[in-house]
């Protein structure tokens, strides 16, 4: 675990794609352990999340992670921030499941046997041990989502940003992921439409029309969001 609670800070963040403003004046200081971000389709959640590791750079304002401006410190920040995309095909690279995890470890673990040991362990943690030598592209959608998560977690980031990590998971694997998240020491930022998942989170942020419209404990934030969506 990191020495101090990780801090993600958005200050005066504005962003547009072409003439479509997506985020307009976002100010957030995120230090809580488990934080959910919710909002309608197209409300800017993924755009906001991608700013945390520099995949999107804001037009105005700054995003910092542990005091480092993401724009100026992308490599360093990407070591601290693990990012899981909603589409796992975007981050599965290697032909087999075990090779994909071993590739993740190749930068940090020099010893091959140690890499293999850690790979087996993380695959077991995520229920993929029977699939170690299977071609990655033949995994089911949910299994791919678990593999993408395993490949990120095995490196030990201090912050995990997960963009809709349960979309393809069945109930068993959703519950498994929820338990995995509950056990994590790492700071967790989850974007999701799976509102049940957020019930025991520390904070839930609601985005709507380019802005933060609620920022609260899960229950009041989700109640606000439900009312907003029924309008
Ligand atoms: N690379 C891009 N180029 C142009 N427009 C984009 C790009 N990425 C996102 N957008 C637009 O920005 C807006 C916000 O998209 P974003 O993906 O952040 O929404 P979201 O809240 O994650 O939605 P969802 O719940 O559907 O995942 C949308 O209108 C989208 O069309
Ligand atoms: Mg999204």
Keywords:
231 residues, alpha/beta, Rossmann fold, six-stranded mixed sheet, four-stranded antiparallel sheet, 33% helix, binds adenosine-5'-triphosphate, binds magnesium ion
Outline the secondary-structure elements.
Blueprint: E1 8-17, E2 20-30, E3 34-39, H1 45-52, E4 60-65, E5 68-69, H2 74-80, E6 81-84, H3 97-105, H4 112-125, H5 141-153, E7 159-163, H6 171-183, E8 187-191, E9 203-208, E10 211-216, H7 218-230
Parallel strand pairs: 3-8, 3-9, 6-7, 7-8
Antiparallel strand pairs: 1-2, 1-4, 4-5, 9-10
Helix pairs in contact: 3-4, 3-5
This protein binds adenosine-5'-triphosphate and magnesium ion (MG).
What do you see in this structure?
This protein has 231 residues and is an alpha/beta fold. It has a single domain, classed as P-loop containing nucleotide triphosphate hydrolases (Rossmann fold, 3-Layer(aba) Sandwich), CATH 3.40.50.300. It has seven helices and ten strands. It has helices at 45-52, 74-80, 97-105, 112-125, 141-153, 171-183, 218-230; strands spanning 8-17, 20-30, 34-39, 60-65, 68-69, 81-84, 159-163, 187-191, 203-208, 211-216. Strands 6-7-8-3-9-10 form a six-stranded mixed β-sheet, with helices on both faces. Helix 3 (97-105) packs parallel to helix 5. Bound molecules: adenosine-5'-triphosphate and magnesium ion (MG).
């Amino acid at each position: 675990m990191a020495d101090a609670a990780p801090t993600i800070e958005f200050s005066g963040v504005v962003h547009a794609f072409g003439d479509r403003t997506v985020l307009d004046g976002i100010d957030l200081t995120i230090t809580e352990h488990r934080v959910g971000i919710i909002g309608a389709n197209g409300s800017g959640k993924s755009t906001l999340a991608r700013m945390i590791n520099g995949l999107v750079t804001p037009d105005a304002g700054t995003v910092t992670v542990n005091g480092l401006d993401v724009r100026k410190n992308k490599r360093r920040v990407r070591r601290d921030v693990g990012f899981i995309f909603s589409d796992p095909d975007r981050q599965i690279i290697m032909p087999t499941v075990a090779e994909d995890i071993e590739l993740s470890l190749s930068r940090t673990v020099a010893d091959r046997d140690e890499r293999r040991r850690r790979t087996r362990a993380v695959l077991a943690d995520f229920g993929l041990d029977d699939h170690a030598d299977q071609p990655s592209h033949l995994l089911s959608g949910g299994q791919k989502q678990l593999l993408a998560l395993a490949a990120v977690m095995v490196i030990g980031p201090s912050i995990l940003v997960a963009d809709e990590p349960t979309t393809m998971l069945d109930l068993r694997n959703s519950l498994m992921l929820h338990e995995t998240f509950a056990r994590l020491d790492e700071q967790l930022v989850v974007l999701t439409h799976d509102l049940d998942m957020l019930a025991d989170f520390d904070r839930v942020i609601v985005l709507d029309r380019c802005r933060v419209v609620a920022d609260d404990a899960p229950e009041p934030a989700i109640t606000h969001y439900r009312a907003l969506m029924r309008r």
